[in-house]
Protein 1
Amino acid sequence: MDTQSASSADWPEPIEVLNEDSDCEIVLICEHAANHIPAEYDRLGVTEADLERHIAWDVGAAAVTRGLAETLGAPAFLGTYSRLLVDLNRPFGCLSSMPVRSEATSIPGNVDLTEAEFQRRRERVFDPFHDRITARLDARDAAGLPTRIVAIHSFTPVYLGVARPWHVGILFDQSADFAEATMAALAQDPALVVGANVPYVIDRDEDYAIPVFGTDRGNPAILVEIRNDLISDAAGIADWTRRMTRVLQDVSTQ
């Protein structure tokens, strides 16, 4: 299928957009919202079970993002393809952009990709996703609307055999004030273990949304990492949607 081919169930539009015209200052981004891989790729050689794991998407992140879009009335931009096909939160072409190995799992369908295949994934998925967000941020700037970027992700309780103690991490680059206010609001619940720049850190060579849509544009920006066992069912998703709604509303008034 070339870049001119019509969208279909197997090749959906690369971005789901909610409340695009909202003037809410929070702009939600969920790059790892879906685990879809078009059938022609034969799951890139991984199993059906692998597609349900963190290597293919961020479990629970899409549902929390949609919930926050509703409760906050905020614009939200969600990816519709698996991060294994192309990772929307990586600079295009970096080693983790189309990984040949994720955690301890080999991804055979990403081995020895041709330049034509690189470009296909860029034109079909990566560029349209980021172009849509860029256009909306440009329009917000032109209208004088303040913008705070909030990217919603999830992480595994255990990574390569090492347990992770945090319930939630707030990642940031230049937006320490926004991050610290968010962490302070979360920490009002003494049962929560909240961390700064855990379980990952923002790195321009390995991250996209926070450096590009946040730092480069002068927008306060944070990435929220919720442990995925906490948002793996309807009750957990509802709980964290309520929690993050309250936190982001509190921070937005400061």
Note: Residues 1-6 have pLDDT under 50 and may be disordered.
Protein 2
Amino acid sequence: MPQFLDRGDGVRLAYERHSGKGPGIVWLGGLRSDMEGTKALALDQWARAQGRAFVRFDYFAHGQSGGSWRDARIGTWREDALQVIDTLTEGPLVLVGSSMGAWTALLAALARPERVAGMVLIAPAPDFTEKLMWAGFPDSVRDSILTRGEWAQPSEYGEPLIITRGLIEEARQWLLLDGPVRFDGPVQILQGMADADVPWQHAITLAGCLTSSDVAVHISKSGDHRLSTPADIDRLVASVEALCRQIEKTG
């Protein structure tokens, strides 16, 4: 059963955590995903077996957490990540972010450089609201968002995704890829070349923006956006394990 963390505004965030050695792991899921996904559970199981501290949680308006989707913003999810880091963890951390969660991880690392020792980013989608959504929308969709305040985007993963004007406009203050991303710790990026949601070139752009000299990009030619096959999961766990060992040796 999940535990709950009060955001301070009456909304509670659902989370699961277990204590252990550091560096601890924080899982940051993707847009409309939850902490019960394949990758999150696989990492949780691995961390338990290793006796390593681990936290996974549901953002505002995701999973078992409270909040209205139409009120959600990139800044809201950034605040969620920082509250989880500040309240539920200690010591150096490895942030593992999937898709939108990679953007959240990057924002958290910039806000807490003294806590975040490294990152593993899966199909990273920083700036997706602007560069992958808004830039590709036809004028009719843009007009709908600007005049009606929202647009329902069909999704192959379930119900249509409601994209609000507030989400698009608020996200512009959190864009990262137009300049250097000042994080100097080790970063592992896992990307599928067959990803229909986040082009593999987006991962390369991010790697170039990071100021760290220790950035590795692993491209799977057949990999899709979810990267949840058994081979993908093995690669993810191996990447997190290697990064933890690296941080242990240097820390």
Note: The first helix runs from residue 38 to 50.
Protein 3
Amino acid sequence: MSAKIRKIIVQVDEVLLEMGQPVTPPTRRALAMAVIANPYAGRYSESLDELIAIGEELGGLLGEKCVQALGIAPGAAQSYGKAAIVGEGGELEHAAAILHPKLGAPLRKAVEKGAALVPSAKKIGGLGTAIDVPLGHKDAAFVRSHFDAMEARVSDAPRAHEIVVAVVVTDSGRPLPRIGGLQVSEIVGQDGLR
């Protein structure tokens, strides 16, 4: 692996009750984060190929960790999202290099299929900076019940020369969804939209 990982954090959020109503089955979201060294910190580089390769490595690694944390088969994953926080020694394009060119394909493999775009967010920040990882259904972007987000934060990262890379995978939509739109049972899943 070319990524120099300082630490990996995995957590699961499980909602059992919302507004006094039971959530059955519970809404579960898994977050996996890697705190990595930024090979371009402190300098400008026209080529960001090293970060693109790191994104490819982390897409599969973090996606698999989420699926394992949920204790589900890959095909049971329902939504996903990705995000990155670049330390102050880097630039926003460093997050883009990790997230966009190659992270998606191995993440899709980790959750089986994934016809829809992977929602993403990026920012520059210091220690303890939080980012909301946006979520959408993995196979049909128009499924409103799966429009959601999960906060990602590492208390001691990113340091100036680091990047926090986060992936979230769920086995459900929001708790108690009731705003209509395309239902999970109606997904065709061919174009990533419906």
Note: The mean pLDDT is 96.
Protein 4
Amino acid sequence: MNILNRRFLIAIGITLAILFAEIIGGLLTGSLALLADAGHVFLDVFALVLSFAAMRLSLRPADSQHTFGFHRFQVLAAFINGATLLLISFEIFREAWARLQTPEPILAGPMLIVAVVGLVANLLVAFTLHDHDDLNTRSAFLHILGDAISSVGVIAAGTIILFTGWYWVDPLVSVLIGVIILLGA
């Protein structure tokens, strides 16, 4: 197994851990921003797995049915990643609209802890994938980078809620995360 394969597997493992932490944290704290970020992380896991599979397929040699080999799978994986980003962003917008109309209380302290752990893990994964130039790996790297930016937004929301009690900031940051996801698409 080459170094890029190992890096992808490490990135997938770390990202899965972030996903479970943010889902649990979002449900326990009532934070839509954490759940929105978890949706983004889910897409990161999906993107990483899809990119890893496409990378592995592209290594197969050409045959009589695939005269150019399997390199097109990497482009297809990048396209599917973008399409899934569109879907999740629209769901975030829908839920954020409902929460803006009826803000819900949020446990800001635990929300902050989960968001900081998520940011650190995202930066670790981004560092793991940063030095490869193919379209497939770049697509996965951009997913992770967008999620790191989203984590910063969740940290900001948690801090504001902690000191002001303004629960409406949570769905507002969720909309910003949705926009980041949409731009990534």
Note: The CA atoms of residues 103 and 168 lie 6 Å apart.
